[in-house]
Amino acid sequence: MRQYSPDLTPPWKKRGPVPEVPAEPGLVVEEPGTGFCGAVIRCEAATVTLEDRFGKHRVFPLEPRGFLLEGRVVTLVRPSSAPVRPTRTASGSVAVPGARARVARAGRIYVEGRHDAELVEKVWGDDLRIEGVVVEYLEGIDDLPSIVAEFAPGPDARLGVLVDHLVPGSKESRIAEAVTSEYALVVGHPYIDVWEAVKPASVGIAGWPRVPRGQDWKTGVCRALGWPENTGAAWERILGSVRSYKDLEPELLGSVEHLIDFVTAPE
């Protein structure tokens, strides 16, 4: 009797036609043998270097059928010398290759703090430059009424404001109501801080911890997660995990898109 041995070849190494995909910078793939998933940051003659969301680098050989792209087996190949321009910005908008930044509008978008501004710049920066919208940050919103009065919003100078923890009955909501007008719009998200607007999975955590009242929230988050109590370093880690709008919660996405539409509305 003929005996048959089971085929123990991993599925991704079984022969058959698979697409060849240029290893362009930013392409996210998985090396199935190790489970390492990351974005291409460099491609040499025979190897490719991937970076995962924690900033860790791994070098892999460019073997046939060696990677998974969105769950499908592919063969990565060295890209041609001509760079391939991205077709989408980090916000998901259609990229406009070679577009020059527009002269800044009189209108502005204000956000509460530096971290908010850096996150908006990372995801929406390309869009904002094309539209000529400048983002500035405040140190809290207690003085927002006087700031809005000094700005004097009008038909040709609309003002949009993004507020953290904008929930009914809060101090933030009362201030927002006081300054909102035809040419000044205040929107926000429900999170205590913009850190929480980054999806936990993107940061590599199960969820954002609850911090008891009376504690500094950011320091409490670092302590609960076992991170060094250095909020600046923690923010760099969080911001570094954001590659596109897909890493952000819908509540923040909708608010920022609303503000951009408002500030850029035709006079």
Automatic annotation (TrEMBL):
InterPro entries: DUF3097_C, DUF3097_N. It comes from the Bacteria. Residues 20-79, 108-264 form the DUF3097 domain. Residues 1-26 are annotated as: Disordered. This is DUF3097 domain-containing protein.
